[in-house]
Design brief:
Structural class: alpha+beta
CATH class of the largest domain: Alpha Beta
CATH architecture of the largest domain: 3-Layer(aba) Sandwich
Largest sheet: 6 strands, mixed
CATH topology of the largest domain: Rossmann fold
Shape: globular
Helix content: 40-55%
């Protein structure tokens, strides 16, 4: 932690009168960082602004807001907070993150701050890199996150990136810093928690300073990525103009450049949300661009639609009505209708609340969406296709329920399951070959 203190004082060179915004949840990491800034404030008389986001999901959130506010009052720190009143239908973690950073940006602007500090630490970096390696990502995505990010009018700094979680706990104990805990941070249903609890500790058994190796790996990838980006930027001047790709020019390039161009475009669209993008998405886009079909489209996370139209390719934000959604199925999701869908390891049930699929017969990744006009599916045991609307009528599903009922489709738009109601011809029996099991509950 003293290295983080010295970094801010000697390398960032925080000086008298600087305004600094710091994102604080009340957890051990952000409280350690807030305490660190309170020490700097005593010696330099800087203005520290604590920005707290009340996620409005847990009963403890009210107490956490009060806890952080009291700390700020006792240390002469400005306290700002924002309560999230409502969430959309997108991935919760992604949406919450987007809301947080948009709010932080507003606070930075309000106080004309030079820096925004967040408490991401060395263990966070390890987890992020490993998760992206497993999922597949871009070269920049594999690097995790940067220590310093230059924004238009301020700089994001993550001064704890070289500090381990254990060092943070020791700092808090030594300085008698209280903090709050979030029980959801230990639930195995979340991918990051599984990496945190079971995988990262094994790396630390091999080398207790493994976080330093991951940091070096991250910075090396970023250096190479930045160099390649300069080459790609020159290529893009005639290949990707005003967010439209000239496919004829694109196809003249070597595959390695083609793939980097696709990655580059996705990075511009998704920026820090690259965790949503996998190798499978890039492969789908590459195949779409090379398709012999004149007009074709695929759906990507965050309601982004990839469209090929004759000799052009573009990514557009798909407009949806308030009750519509389309979400990529990764491991687990809470649906707008109050139910859940989860990919599980095994089951003996053959009910309509479970679905077994063979990935070789469908186009991954899977998506969960609301019904669309003209939706039809190949119902298991029936010849031909049946309208989804007719199935709703047969099953006596109310109009209100139909509007939010989940429909599971593959990336080619083929309906593979109507959860809780009907299985498709793609569903497998227990004695057949399958490698995906989905549960609806």
């Amino acid at each position: 932690m003293e290295n983080a203190y010295n970094y801010l004082m000697n390398e960032v060179k925080i000086k008298y009168g600087d305004a600094i915004v710091v994102g604080v949840s009340g957890g051990p990491d952000s409280m350690a960082l807030l305490h660190l800034l309170s020490r700097i404030k005593k010696s330099l008389d800087i203005q520290v602004i604590c920005a707290h986001v009340h996620h409005n999901l847990r009963k403890e959130s009210d107490d956490e807001k009060i806890f952080v506010e009291r700390f700020c009052a006792n240390h002469g720190i400005v306290f700002e907070w924002h309560k999230i009143e409502d969430y959309g239908d997108d991935n919760f973690h992604n949406e919450a993150r987007s809301i947080r950073y948009n709010y932080f940006s507003k606070i930075v602007k309000k106080y004309n701050a030079k820096y925004l500090l967040t408490a991401h630490h060395g263990d966070d970096l390890i987890e992020t890199i490993l998760m992206r390696i497993v999922r597949g990502s871009t070269l920049r995505g594999y690097s995790g996150f940067s220590k310093v990010v230059k924004m238009d009018n301020y700089t994001i700094i993550r001064p704890l990136i070289n500090v381990t979680k254990q060092e943070i706990y020791e700092y808090n104990k030594k300085n008698k810093i209280n903090y709050v805990t979030d029980d959801s941070n230990v639930k195995d249903v979340y991918t990051r928690n599984r990496f945190r609890k079971y995988i990262v500790p094994e790396f630390k058994k091999e080398d207790e300073k493994v976080h330093e190796k991951f940091y070096k790996f991250s910075t090396t990838l970023l250096e190479y990525n930045n160099y390649i980006d300069k080459i790609v930027e020159e290529k893009l001047k005639k290949i990707y103009i005003q967010n439209i790709m000239n496919i004829e020019e694109f196809l003249k390039e070597e595959k390695v450049i083609q793939m980097k161009i696709i990655y580059y475009i996705l990075e511009q669209i998704y920026q820090d949300d690259l965790m949503l993008i996998t190798d499978q998405h890039v492969k789908l886009i590459h195949n779409l661009i090379h398709s012999k079909r004149a007009n074709v489209k695929i759906h990507l996370p965050n309601n982004i639609k990839a469209i090929k139209s004759y000799d052009t390719f573009t990514l557009v934000l798909e407009e949806t009505k308030n009750n519509e959604y389309e979400i990529e199925l990764i491991n687990y999701m809470n649906l707008p209708n109050g139910h859940n869908i989860e990919i599980i390891e095994e089951t003996t049930s053959d009910s309509n609340f479970y679905c077994r699929l063979n990935s070789s017969e469908i186009t991954l990744p899977l998506h969960v969406r609301t019904r669309q006009n003209g939706d039809k599916m190949y119902v298991k045991g029936m010849l031909g296709r049946k309208k989804i609307n007719d199935i709703f009528i047969d099953e006596k599903v109310s109009i209100e329920e139909r509007n939010s009922w989940p429909v599971v489709v593959d990336s080619a738009g083929v309906i593979v399951w109507l959860p809780g109601l009907k299985k498709s011809k793609f569903d497998k029996l227990k004695n057949e070959k399958y490698d995906i099991i989905i549960k609806y509950y």
